[in-house]
Each structure stands twice: as C-alpha cells, then as structure tokens.
Design brief:
Blueprint lengths: L1 H12 L5 H16 L5 E4 L5 E6 L42 E2 L16 E5 L3 H7 L32 E13 L1 E7 L12 E9 L7 E9 L1 H4 L5 E7 L17 E2 L21 E9 L6 E5 L3 E6 L11 E11 L26 E9 L5 E2 L5 E4 L6 E7 L3 E7 L9
Parallel strand pairs: 3-11
Antiparallel strand pairs: 1-2, 2-4, 5-14, 5-17, 6-11, 6-15, 7-8, 7-14, 8-9, 10-13, 11-12, 12-13, 15-16, 15-19, 18-19
Amino acid sequence: MTWFLLLLLLLLLHQPVPSFSKNHRHLRKQMRHFNKPAIKSIKSPDGDIIDCIRISHQPAFDHPLFQNHTIQMRPSYNPEGLLFDTNKLSSIGRKSRPMMSQLWHTKGKKCPQGTIPVRRTKVDDVLRAGSVKHYGKKKNNKHSTVFVPQSSEPDLITQSGHQHAIAYVEGDKYYGAKATINVWEPQIQETNEFSLSQIWILGGSFASDLNSIEAGWQVSPDLYGDNNTRLFTYWTSDAYQATGCYNLLCSGFIQVNNEIAMGASISPISSYHGSQYDISILIWKDPKEGDWWMQFGDGYVLGYWPAFLFSYLSDSASMVEWGGEVVNTAEDGQHTTTHMGSGHFPNEGFKKASYFRNIQIVDGSNNLRPPKEIGTFMEQSNCYNVQLGRNDDWGNYFYYGGPGRNPNCP
C-alpha cells in the first residue's frame, strides 16, 4: 500500500499544469503591456492606483507606427475665441459650479514633470473583458454607438440596444467642438450596461469606415469594476471593429499632461436639487500639424490623437454630436432601468436634469462659434429625451436624459 501511495504521488506531481494556471501566468505577463514601470504611484480613495510613468513609455509607443513619432508637447494653435468660463449667473438666476478635479487629487495633485498619470489596470479588469484582446474595446458595437442620420442608413439606427438623446450638426466641415457638461452618477441596472455623456467628432460613411473621436464622462461597471463617474476618451477609424480603445489602453491617444488621469474618478458630482458640478471639454484640430487635441476644463491640455490614425478625420469632421448614450441589454421585454444623465427628464430643468451648455464648433478659420441648425435625436423619447434652449449666459444648450423604464417606457 505504501508503494502504491508513493507511485500515485509521483504521478500527480508529474501531471501537466492546468491550463487555467498557464493562462493566468500568461495574463500577468500581458499586464506589462498596460502597466508600465512607475516613477511614483498614488493610491486614490476609491481603490485606484495612479502610476506616474515616463511620457515616452505610455502605451501609444508600443505600436510600430509610433516608433519615430516626435511628441508634440503643445498644440501649434488654440482655437480663436477660446475664453475662460466665467461661470456667470444664468438667466434663471442660478449658478452652477465648475468641476475640474479627480478623486486621486486628494492624495497627490500631479505627477512629476516628464511623466503622466495612468490608472493602473488590474487583473480583474481584464478578466471581466474576457481577454487581453478585448479589454478596453467596445463590445459588439458595430454601427451601434453613434446616431446615424436617417438620410444615410436608417436600418442602422437602433441596433445592439444602444440608445441616445443627443443634439447634433451635420452638412459642413467641422474642426472641433466644445461643451460644458454637468456630472452625475447614473444608476446602472446590469454590470454589462453603461451610461455616458460625451462629445462625438465624426467622419466617414457611418459604415465600416466610420472615424470617431469621443470624450466625456461615463459609468461603466464592466470596464472599471465599480459605479464611479469617470473621465474617458475613445477613438476608432473603422466603426469600432478593430481599431481604437478607451483612454490609454492601446496605441492611439498621446497624453502630455501630468495632472489628469484618463479613466480616473471625477469628484464631487451633481446632486438632485442640490449643488451642480460640471466639466468643460474641447476637441480641436491643430491647423498646422493636423493632430486632434483635447482640453479638459479651462487649462488642462491633455494630449492629442495623431492625424495619421484616421482617414476621413485626417481632413475634417462631417458631423458633431453632443449628448448621452446608454446600453439596454434587457431581453425579457422590459426596458432597462439604467439612467441617462441624472435619470430625470429634460423638462425638470436646472438642478434636476442633466445639461450641455455653451455648445460650440470650431470652423475652418479655427474660430469657436455657435453651431447652426442644431438637430436632436432620440430612439425612445418616453425613456430618454432631449430639449434644446438658448440664452445669453449658456449660449446654445440642452437638457437631456431620463430614467429608462417607467410607466410610459415599459
């Protein structure tokens, strides 16, 4: 019996390592692609680790196309008419408060010069995505994450459960856009759903060659593992099929700012019938170098998307959108209860509904100006809606959003 047990033990010791263990070790090795060596690390109160990495070590430079790229530390030109947001009282006699801070700033205001702050990727983040290949990508989103004009391809408007409440302009050449957006923490019903508010800069045919640059705030439990409201960017040059990703999770966006971390939590946020906090986002095309730059707030120039990433957007955009988007994954005939914006309809107004104010476009002369002939779009107005307005203090603005499922949106 003793010899039998010894033989059995030897056989077990020589068994192949389970594939799960192999895959887990491979995954940890792949994590080096996302997490570069840090000069300094800052632990945020929400559990995030913000790593300060050398600017030349960011993920963009892992791709051969970027090997000989010279980093542009600042744009050649800013748009004309770019003014600081004076945050004046609106015509309805109320005041919103600017919001340009991130939660990790309570533990450290910025990274050292020559470095950028990057949210550290956790193993669980990748496991939720299913694979390294799919991490940081939008899932099953072909033709579904952007409003498609009915004049283009009407059959693409409502695919894949994505729903919108947006304002938009089209029919001209656009070289950027700007808006101030109040920040909320919308309720998400399912972990594979999300809710976001953003600007879209678009070019292409809205089919397999769509070019899109996107930036705003989002709540995405699947991507981040929590319900925090976070600053984000996204880009694609092939309608979300193979190119592009969120934030700095692939080669693409080049960050130059050492104070703002893509994907990090924004805090504080607006409250219903209480204080309102907002962020300003500007995206514009450098008329000299051709790159697309992003500015957060009144003074944080974050970085840029090189022009060579795109086909149609290498020249200009043909459409700009501002507004909200949610994913409705409900399969039982009932609409999701995931909120868009504050979770309240536009007609409730200030301190209750979500808004975009001072919406502008950048024209061919590199001037910021009010857009003309603004259109609106929503798939189901009883679930999420949008309402345009204009006054002297907020310029062109709109309220948008909704609660999702309600008595009129079953």
